[in-house]
Amino acid sequence: MKYTLLGCLSALMVSPSMASGSLWNMTPGVTEISQQVFGLHMTIFYICCVIALLVFGVMIYSLIRHRHSKGVTPANFHESTKVEIAWTVVPFLILIGMAVPATSTLIAMEDPSDAELTVQITGSQWKWHYQYFGHDVGFYSLMSTTQEQIENQAEKGANYLLEVDKPLVIPANRKVRFLMTSDDVIHSWWVPAFAVKKDANPGFINEAWTKVTTPGTYRGQCAELCGKDHGFMPVVVEVLPEAEFDAWLVEQKQMANAAADAEAASLGQVLTLDESMALGEQIYIGRCAACHQPNGMGLPGVFPAIKASPVALGDIGAHIDIVANGKPGTAMQAFAAQLSLKELAAVVTYQRNAFDNNTGDVVQAADVNGGSVAPQAATPAPAGALSDEVTAVASATAEAAAVPSEPEPAAEQPLDLASAMSLGEQVYLGRCAACHQANGMGLPPAFPAINGSAIAKGEIDQHIDVVANGRAGTAMAGFASQLSRKELAAVVTYQRNAWDNQTGEVIQTADVDAVAGQ
Known about the structure:
This protein is of the alpha+beta class. It folds into four domains: 2-67 and 82-109, no CATH class; 117-144 and 160-240, Cupredoxins -  blue copper proteins (Immunoglobulin-like, Sandwich); 262-387, Cytochrome Bc1 Complex, Chain D, domain 2; 417-516, Cytochrome Bc1 Complex, Chain D, domain 2. The protein is built from 17 helices and ten strands. The chain has helices at 2-13, 16-20, 32-65, 81-109, 147-150, 242-266, 273-292, 310-313, 316-325, 341-353, 365-370, 388-402, 417-431, 433-436, 460-469, 485-497, 509-516, and strands at 117-124, 127-132, 137-141, 168-171, 176-182, 187-191, 196-200, 206-210, 216-222, 234-240. It has a five-stranded mixed β-sheet with strand order 3-2-1-5-8. A five-stranded mixed β-sheet has the order 4-10-9-6-7. The longest helix has 34 residues, at 32-65. It is globular and about 100 Å long. The N and C termini lie far apart (62 Å). Its EC number is 7.1.1.9.
């Protein structure tokens, strides 16, 4: 108690300016909202200190003043109406006094109206994608800390794990609205200096905003456990003076035009094996090594190896397709919108010749384009800026994307246990293993285990409902809109029969229809 009193007395004697500079306290940030949050934090802190002083002060005084050694006879009373009213009314008034400024700050934090710029922020394992509404500017932002630093083979930089190749750029003194979503799992975009921390949920749009008055570079990171490389997903925001930001937008559009022209020119280029391997290695280390490992060995059970894989040693067209368009039902992303035709060709070449694969194949940009892969479109150019050749390719791709997929046949062959387990394992590793682990043991208490769980061994309809529709109030997302009926049936079958569950039950698409209403 003595140290508590001394701490509170010290806190009360510290000025707000001194408190804001303390290494042990929150920082006031660089926005009006962040300063309101800091002010609210300090107000509540001081109220708590006053309460502690009064309560412990009365306790200590009573213990000393009425101690037994002084011969004090304890009073014998109870049920004092005045005391009961006092200890009900006083805390109520204190809570009201705390709630008024807190509510005002929360309302201000959730008011993105009258924004002068809107940026869509999309989380993806493990990078951020920024799209500027109304300006045809967009790009991916990846961590730029080198693998040598991460593996302790080089001295760590000043911004270790908090540096990116392309920061988000916003103007000073303008209200910027953020629309947060995700391509895969739950992420959280967090910049402490702005007092902005908002979850990016797949299938949902969350809103936040900021208005920064001080130009500079501000750093943050993903604040939601999102998988293997959660710790390698930094956020960097560069705030420019208004005139410099406007000039930056013009520069980005010029770069988009130049990139479109370069895409068209790359169709006629022929790279040598050495040139492709050099470029492909850069792309592989930056985009693929996080999952498939720098040595190409992958993480068995989660991410397949590139070394000696049937994809890297098989049909070139199929290899290009999986790198460019991804693989539904797995963690394999589509890179067609993230890489240029030349980069796609180089990384496929690298995968087919590195790690003792040595196929000798050299894939060119024209091969990638011939596989109906759209040119890179992270920063779309204005109408008329694309060459006729690239425009024709983009149009053909758009038409292909616009063709609705064929509906699943009304009469389907029943799944047997072996085929359901095979498909279910693929879906599980791609969609579920990041949270529940490849061995089904989960990450208690954040993510429950599937192995031996009451859901996986319980009622089938309840199990299907949780997988298809999610569970409100938890991190469990609904997969009804992400997986086909067959995939849902297969992954539920897998969960009910993998590890030590072994229920022997085979879920069919009709079972999914009855519960999920697909």
